[in-house]
Write a structure and sequence with these properties.
Elements (H helix, E strand, L loop, with lengths): L1 E8 L28 E2 L1 H18 L6 H7 L2 H6 L23 E3 L2 E3 L2 E2 L2 H10 L6 E6 L14 E6 L3 E8 L5 H10 L17 E5 L1
Antiparallel strand pairs: 1-8, 1-9, 2-5, 3-4, 4-8, 6-7
Helix pairs in contact: 1-5
Length: 207
């Protein structure tokens, strides 16, 4: 079973690649082979797991057995050897031919969050990928109220856009827990780095 979700960004956001661009940019966003922005499935699964944990906390209830079934637990996650997992979803294609770059986490698989197919195709066709990005500069202010030397930092950011991802399971997720997931993703209000500086404001919902 596959359950689809949508991320709507309301302002610029930065999901880092860990790379820089020489003296021009200190931090680049992560991009796919077509120079388009995406959010890795590993990041998505962490956000959703944390949101579900928050849901249980806000409702003053204990983590259920269903949570462990679908998300696994920290010990399982940390000790799992990917080479020993028989995973029929990894390195496979979905019914429309897309690579499923999914992450095993309990019994659930999380895809990358990517631009909708029609938008991806049009952007690539028009060769306008570079217009998906801009940059911001920041610096550290010292105790005297002046900019510290060598503290200027430029960060690449992605313009507001809509991404889609899916959660895939070998069996249908129980109606009870699916409702918890759908409510929990609404708790995710920001994604990416520099959230404390206003970046990454978003809304996630099932579609």
């Amino acid at each position: 079973m596959k359950y689809e979700y949508e991320i709507q960004f309301f302002n610029e956001w930065h999901c880092g690649s860990g790379l820089a661009a020489g003296a021009d940019l200190d931090a680049l966003v992560i991009k796919d082979g077509q120079n388009l922005p995406f959010i890795p499935g590993k990041t998505i699964k962490g956000l959703v797991r944390e949101a579900v944990e928050d849901y249980y906390t806000f409702n003053n209830t204990e983590i259920s057995e269903l949570f462990i079934k679908y998300f696994g637990n920290s010990k399982d996650k940390d000790n799992r050897n990917p080479q020993q997992i028989e995973d029929k979803f990894l390195n496979k294609k979905d019914e429309i031919g897309n690579n499923i770059d999914a992450i095993r986490f309990g019994s659930l698989f999380f895809s990358n969050a990517e631009l909708p197919d029609n938008e991806r195709k049009e952007i690539v066709k028009q060769h306008v990928q570079d217009f998906m990005y801009t940059s911001i500069a920041s610096t550290r202010i010292d105790e005297n109220g002046t900019a510290s030397k060598t503290s200027l930092r430029k960060t690449e950011i992605t313009i507001p856009c809509k991404l889609k991802f899916f959660i895939q399971s070998e069996e249908e997720i129980s109606k009870e827990f699916l409702e918890i997931i759908n409510k929990s993703v609404g708790l995710i209000k920001r994604i990416g780095q520099n959230r404390n500086r206003g970046l990454g404001r978003c809304q996630i919902k099932n579609v």
